Amino acid sequence: MNFTLGFKPAMGDSGSVENLEKQLICPICLEIFTKPVVILPCQHNLCRKCANDVYQASNPLWQNRGTVSTGGCFRCPSCRHEVVLDRHGVYGLQRNLLVENIIDIYKSESTRPLLPKTEQQQLMCDQHEEEKINIYCLTCETPTCSMCKVFGAHKDCDVAPLPDIYKRQKTELSDAIAILVAGNDRTQALISQMEDICRTVKENGHRQMQYISDKFDELYAILEERKRELIETVGRQQDQKLGHVRSLIRRHGDHLEMSVKLVETAIQSMEEPQMAVFLQNAKEVFNKITDTAKASSIERTEAGYESMAHFIINTEDMADMLRGINFQTGEDGEDSSDEAPEDLTPSRGQTDESGRRL
Question: Where is pLDDT greater, at 65 or 264?
């Protein structure tokens, strides 16, 4: 049945909002939460002023250090879970904006003034224009008027007084809101737990990446040291061979220079026109040529002396082993002498039946 909505009921009915009010009571002042509302690590809520009062009572030494507390701890009045504060004190606790929004809605609805009965607009039946909507059809689940029940479309339906259904559904809605708030608390606790896990995964991953980087740096250092040693070995033999060959070059050079001078001397003797003088000098020249010829058989380098090909290393097996480096699992990891960093684990805490952490 179609009708025109002309009145929106207020939330001032104490019976319909009793359960919602219970969810919005601070366990310290026993009043509706006063903003700002802070959520503790255990997922319980307090007025920030009340949280500060509890903190001051638990930490009397900080009472003379200004309004902003620095560090310290206190216990949640609902579950006795220890709340550890950082340097911001209670001002470092996260605000529960969801609860604050619900408080605003609750207060705006509960304080809305009711119109006098004579001024309240009534819903009128669209089938019987002068009849007010005063009953509720349980079969069709819609408000209707008495005439529709007696003569109209709802004459065979089950009906109930409109105020009774109004109060019942108002109570059911209030209970649903309370369940939703409790579910939101559990979801918020789960989100906080997931955020802790994300932070821990990130930190553990960074630690393991640093660990792997350090291990490879150690391998790099070993390879660099061994490379330096092998290169020095090749360099030493290279210098030794170069020194030996250069000494032979110097000796051959000296012999060549002496031989050239002897040739020049012999040519000059050949040009001597006087036979007596020629014969007198020829003997000395012959002796020098004979000595030079004997000295021509000086030391030589053996064949292949210049080769350095014997300095060969086989890195294929080592390269395959390096390519096969992988993470150890099972018993292989237990036998390792290396101490890998231990994983951090998020402090999940215990949870009650509603999913809140204790």
Answer: 264
